Recover the amino acids of this structure.
């Protein structure tokens, strides 16, 4: 029996994602130093969070962008690993008691619940630090592109990017941020690394800002980043904690400002639909954009 | 009245250190992004710790090594700033309640005492992240040397280096580490960044591992790093808290394993003397080594 077109495409993109996730994990294995016999717990703690069935969305975007733009997997995989290390460190630090104080992540105890706060803090520091060595050590691209990748990795994940978003998130606990502030927070907290994924994919393929396709993949990543956050907020409000692997209803309990503080769930879903269409439209004209388009649709429909 | 040679030399090196500290601070000013109007507190917190009358030992070593090897100040200053940012982040994280839980640093409240734990954690993350952009952005050296600097910065400050030393320090709280373990801890926790200072100074000057002077400055930095730690332990045991700007006697109160757990103060002083002589001997034959030799003597005799 023939599957209909939509289901079959979804199956295809799921297979592609699974393949890229496996490749990223192999790259992460190569990228982590061997545990030091005097303190193996540091490596255990890093690995506990790094290999915990994450969605690997950022590596997937980086690899798909690179492939679409004619680059090789070998050129983008070190950047994909670096992205995932930075993402992973941010989750470990974000879960700490002085931040979100979360006990559960991806259905398992958070890093500090397993290893204690000090080791969790240091495992995050070590992952962030190692990410730069991994990006700088990319031998498949020339030194100029590797340096550009290091600079972007720092800019998007630092005080003007992801870390800035976490600061805004923390400050928002003491007030009621407006819509503009909430968008600014999300564009830094989750948007910056998703955009970075597209940027690193393009750099790995040798495509720079002078190529019009560069702006297209940035537009794609900006839209997908917003969709990702809207769906996160919807899942927290309406999702199932077993399926999502998180405690749901947490945002409301914590009095967090989310998209649902400004629009009802139906309007949020409609907005996410529109953004997904915009993401697809921005890359549709580029040969080989199929998987990126299917990924955008899949991220819109995800249940966890 | 003519000053005697020793006092005059000490005055010279103090002037040189003050000059390099000023240059480093000017470079740090250039290296920090402008505060974001939505969350200026992040920048305030970073600046609070970064501009707090630190000794700037690592930048001083980097600049003096670079000068001795014929490099320009312009080439080494971005690396000096990156070094100081990494050092500063490590102090902020190390002072956190889940680590050393310190209230006082350089005679002032620690970062988390001023800004709260979340902002302190994130300011540390932002400084570490920015350090890599600053090293990668060094336009005075070619891309190959900038990339080499990024890789070394990561290696010495990450899980195999400084962060590893902090893990060992934390693990040591639950036991009595032997002498070998304590040396391994210090060689990572403080030694790695002091060695990195020498390495980055050499890279800035265009001197690589194939040049015999490279091994000489590494030897110098390894000796000086150990002396630095021995003097720290002696000052904690015997120093004055007003002069040192720290709560002294803390190591004994915390049951910490230090050099003084293995030798009496006089033997520790003698060992530090011998290491200083070794440091001086390793670079003495290189033209222009005067300031580095005087620095080693000064670090041996410091009172804070």
């Amino acid at each position: 029996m023939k599957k209909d077109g939509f289901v079959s495409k979804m199956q295809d993109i799921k297979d592609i994602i699974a393949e890229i996730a496996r490749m990223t994990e192999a790259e992460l294995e190569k990228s982590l130093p061997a545990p030091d016999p005097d303190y193996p717990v540091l490596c255990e703690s890093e690995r506990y969070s790094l290999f915990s069935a994450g969605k690997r969305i950022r590596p997937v975007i980086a690899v798909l962008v690179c492939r679409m733009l004619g680059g090789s997997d070998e050129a983008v995989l070190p950047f994909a690993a670096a992205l995932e290390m930075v993402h992973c460190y941010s989750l470990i630090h974000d879960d700490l008691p002085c931040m979100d104080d979360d006990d559960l992540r991806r259905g398992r105890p958070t890093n500090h619940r397993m290893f204690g706060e000090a080791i969790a803090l240091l495992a995050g520091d070590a992952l962030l630090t190692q990410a730069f060595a991994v990006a700088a050590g990319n031998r498949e691209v020339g030194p100029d592109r590797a340096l550009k990748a290091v600079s972007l990795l720092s800019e998007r994940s630092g005080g003007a990017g992801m870390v800035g978003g976490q600061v805004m998130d923390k400050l928002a606990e003491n007030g009621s941020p407006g819509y503009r502030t909430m968008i600014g927070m999300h564009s830094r907290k989750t948007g910056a690394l998703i955009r970075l994924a597209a940027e690193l994919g393009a750099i790995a393929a040798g495509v720079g800002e002078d190529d019009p396709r560069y702006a297209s993949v940035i537009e794609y990543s900006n839209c997908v980043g917003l969709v990702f956050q809207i769906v996160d907020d919807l899942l927290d409000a309406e999702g199932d904690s077993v399926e999502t692997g998180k405690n749901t209803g947490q945002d409301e309990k914590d009095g967090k400002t989310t998209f649902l503080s400004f629009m009802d769930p139906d309007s949020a879903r409609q907005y996410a639909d529109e953004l997904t269409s915009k993401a697809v439209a921005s890359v549709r004209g580029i040969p080989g954009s199929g998987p990126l388009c299917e990924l955008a649709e899949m991220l819109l429909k995800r249940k966890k």
Summary: The longest strand of chain A covers residues 104-105. Chain A touches chain B through 50 residues (CB under 8 Å). The radius of gyration of chain A is 19 Å. Chain A has one domain: 5-301.
